[in-house]
Structures are given as C-alpha cells and as structure tokens.
Amino acid sequence: MSGSTSTPPTPTHAHPLAELWVRYRQYRARVVLAFVLSTIRKVMDVMPELLIGAAIDVVVRGADSFVASLLGVPDRHQQILWLAVVNAVVWVLESTFDYLAALTWRNLAQQVEHDLRLETYGHVQGLDMAWHESRSTGSTLAVVNDDVNQLERFLDTGVDRLWTLALNVVLVGAVFAASSWTLTLLAFLPIPVIILGSLWFQRRLEPRYAAVRSTVARISGLVSGNLGGMATIKSFTAEERELERVREASDAYRLANADAIRASAAFVPLIRMAILVGFTMTLLLGGWMALDGTLEIGLYSVLVFMTQRLLWPLTSVGEVLDLYQRAMASVRRILALLDEKPLTLPGDRTPDAVTGRLELRGVRAGYADGPDVLHDVDLVVPAGEVHAVVGPTGAGKSSLLRLLLRFTDPRAGQVLLDGIDLRELTWEGLRGRIGYVAQDVFLFEGSIADNIAYGRPGATRDEIVRAAEQAQAAEFVEAMPDGYDTHVGERGVTLSGGQRQRLALARAILRDPEVLILDEATSAVDNETEAAIQRSLAEVSKGRTTVMVAHRLSTVRHADRIWVLAAGRVVDAGTHDELVARPGPYSELWSVQTGALAD
C-alpha cells in the first residue's frame, strides 16, 4: 500500500526563478519583450534630467550652448522651444512605454499564476489518497492559493522594479562617466556598500520568510479544519478552546512576520546614510569644480539631479528584496509540492467491454508503513452478482474497498477486474467503470441536479429524475422549493444524512457502471427508507456486479454471497441463510442485531 508523509521533500532545484524559466519556456519571448519595454521606459525616464541640464546650459552660454552647436540655432528662445518639444515627446514616449511595460508584466504574471495554479492543483489531484489523508487540507490550500498568489505579486511588480534599479545604475553611471570620472567614483562609492548590505539582508531574510510561509500553512490548516468541524466544536462547547488554538497559531505568524519585518525595516535607514555620502560628494566637489571652471554649470546641475536619480531609488531595494524573499519562499514550497510523486500510477489498458468479475488473490495490504491490515485474502465476485462484506470495526472492510478502487495497491497478491490486474488499467478503464457510494458522502456546492449528474455531466433531466427515483430520492427533492434546481450548500450541509446518501446513490446509478461499490450506503437512513433503497438496489444491481460493505446485516441479507472479515482475514463466506444456520461470527452478530431490534 502506498503512503506519504506530510513533510515535503527537500527541493533539489538550483534556484526557484531558474526552475520557473525552464518550466514556462513558452513565455520567454514575452519576458524578453517586457524587459525591452521596461528598458525603453527607463531610458525615457532619464532624459528629462539631461534636458534640464541642456536648458541651464542654454541660459548660461547662449549661442555657445550644446543645443546651439547641435541644431545650429543661435537664438536662445528657439533653443528652449526645441527643448520643450523634445521634452514633450520624451514624456509621451515614457508614458506610452510605461503603460505597455506594466500591461505586459501584469498579464505575464497573471498567466504564470494561472498556469502554475492549474499545474499545482492538477498535480495534487494525481497524488495518492494516502498522501491526502496524511496532510491537512489547509496546508495544501496554502500552497495552491496563497503561495501562488505571492509569486504573482512578485512577477507583477518585483521583477520590473529590480530590472529598473539595475538599469538606473547603468544609465546614470554612463552619464557620470562621460562627465567626470572623479565624480563617478565618489557618487558610486555607496553602491558596493548597498549591494553587500542587500546580500547580507537577503541571507537574513530568507529563513525568516520560510518560517512566515510555514506559519501561514498552519493557520490555513487549522481554520479550514475548524470550519469543516463546526458542528463538533459547537456540540462540545469548544469555541473558546478552538479560538485559543487559532490565537496561538496567529501569534506564531505575527511573531514570525515581526522577526522578518525587524530585519527588513532596518535596511532603508542604512541605505539613506550611504546615499548621504554619495550626494554630499557630488554636491560639494561638483560645486567646487563648477566654480573653478573645470565643470560646466549645466553639466553640474545634471549630475546633482542624477545623483538623486542614482541613489534614491536604492531605498526601495529593501522593499523589493522583501517581496523577492517572500516570493522565493513560496516558490520553494510550490516546487516541494510538485516534487511529491504518486506511488499509484495508472496502467495503459482500457478494455472495450467489462463484465465486472472481481477477484483478490493472496492480497496483503496495510496503511503507509504500518502493519498489515489484510492478510492473504482470497475473494471472488462473479460478474453480475451482489456480494457483501461484513465484519466488526477494524476488520479491514474499508481497506478492501480501497483496493477495488485502487486508491492504494496491495503489498502482495493481485486485485483483478475481468482477469486483468488493476495496475494494468487506465483510470478510465477502472474507475470509469465503477459507481461508488462512500459512507461519508461528499456533495459539491451547486444544484441537486448538478450533484446527481456529477459522474455523467451530459445526462438529461429525465435521466437525472429517473436515477433519483431509483435511489428513492425523488420524493424529497421534488418537495423542495426549486426541486432539482435547489442549491446545495458546501458539503451538502443543508441536507440530512439520509438525503445525502440517497443523492450519492442516485449519482452512482446515473453513471450506469458495470461495477457498483457501496460503503455503508444505508447507514444514515431510517428503516423505512432502507427498505425502499433495498428494493431499488435489487433493481439496479440486476446484471451488475455489486460489492457492498455494511454493519446492518438486514441490508445485505439478500446478497448472493456474504464475506465475513475478522482481523483482516476471511473467516467465513456464504449466503445469509447458510451463515445464520451455522455457529460463527455472522450468526452471533445477527442474533445481537435482531435481538436489539426486538427490544
């Protein structure tokens, strides 16, 4: 039997962004386009400072200005007019490319988010039932929803901002280098400090944000579980106790976040001190050079503005790194989930026709790494017959049904359908031929008709009604205000247990499967409804292989054969009359149940 622990494997990926680049190669052209648009936008963004310098140069030098020599226009008014026209064009271009870049990055982020969520959810659906049973729903939901959203936020604005910061250093550095190497060195002096500080903060923030994402998963799991078990919480007046558990989990999240915030908040003040050094150097030494005549006044004004343009955006490095670290922690959790591998894989055979003959040969099975639950079980259900499996709690009945549905595989032996090992069949070739009614019925939010037609979405309304009639559900459905269009709340909580079971039975009947598997299908109904369902089962099981598990022996007394399990072994088998006639666990259980009924 397959199993899985709730601890995710350690990711082997070199870097989360590199892994995304490999996974989503279809978007590489759009990524390149986004970078190109951001680059053009940034070039346009730097131009106004150069134009300001040119304007000052025109005012100071007149006919000897750079603009005059470039355009051959000696009149200062015309020079300023030309600069105004160029400035307007630059602003229009910057606004246009800002819009295009934002549109491209955001659409790209949305598409990657969409694809990654579908990939993650699809992967989760393919994992073994044992994996799902060993992991809280909230923990999985935190990855599929919260972590994917965290990545989307980074791709939406974070990548663009990082690229813009890098471009800013390059473009402004080019202007400084063309003006004065001395001022370039002095203005850029704080940048190594900022980079080293950023790397140091990044290393400090990484484990902190991993802890934040872990506490988020714990809160999601706790709240999700509590909302699903609200009836139990209320019935045991445990509201305060559960509120305290949520408070503890929320406090853990708050403290983990506070730890990360303390580290990230210290970053900007340190950056400001580094900026102060660079700006002071440009202001002071550049001013002296302009006064001494070794630096043009217009160029000095450009460099003063450019120093601000160079260094001040670096104050946002902390915020961008904060976004980056949160996203990388999330991506690592997503990749760890995608690293989980299903142990139960489908085969490649899809038979054209199935008669429904089931057989277990020397089957030994158990849960995860625990002891065997089933021991050397041999069992045959001929095609078209109704067989029942009974026994005390813990006898292995549910484990047997899990094997028939191939929610897990046996540790030894074989489970066969029409003589074919289930491991050779595709999911459609196996589960597509089975109608299953679980003991814990799950109904989806939607209409009653949608829930009945879940296993056969193209069914007509007449077919849906017919299935409901066969499951003895039509009467209560038609009595509802909107009939088959009545909305069913989450998990069908607005219906009684018996109503949910009858709808689940209708859902299985509508599928018209070759094999019908019923796990305590009448456990939540009264005696009158049970008798009605038994009559409908007698009709729908004709010519159809049916395996039912039941505690109430009155449900299975008309089965063609009854298998009695005890401690994971088949201890008896026969018809109801044969088993009652001879001493054994079945006859003892029958006596207890009929005696209880007589009382």
Describe this structure in words.
By secondary structure, the chain is of the alpha/beta class. It folds into two domains: 17-339, Up-down Bundle (ABC transporter transmembrane region fold), CATH 1.20.1560.10; 358-598, Rossmann fold (3-Layer(aba) Sandwich). The protein is 62% helix and 10% strand. The chain contains 22 helices and twelve strands. It has helices at residues 16-23, 28-61, 66-71, 76-125, 129-133, 137-179, 181-187, 190-228, 230-235, 239-265, 267-292, 297-311, 317-339, 397-404, 427-430, 448-452, 461-470, 474-478, 497-510, 527-540, 576-581, 585-598, and strands spanning 358-366, 372-381, 386-390, 412-417, 420-421, 434-437, 446-447, 487-488, 515-519, 545-549, 561-566, 569-574. The strands form three sheets. The protein has a six-stranded mixed beta sheet with strand order 6-9-10-3-11-12, with helices on both faces. The protein has a four-stranded antiparallel beta sheet with strand order 2-1-4-5, covered by helices on one side. β4 (412-417) and β5 form a beta hairpin. α2 packs parallel to α6. The longest helix has 50 residues, at 76-125. It starts with 15 loop residues before the first helix and ends with a helix.
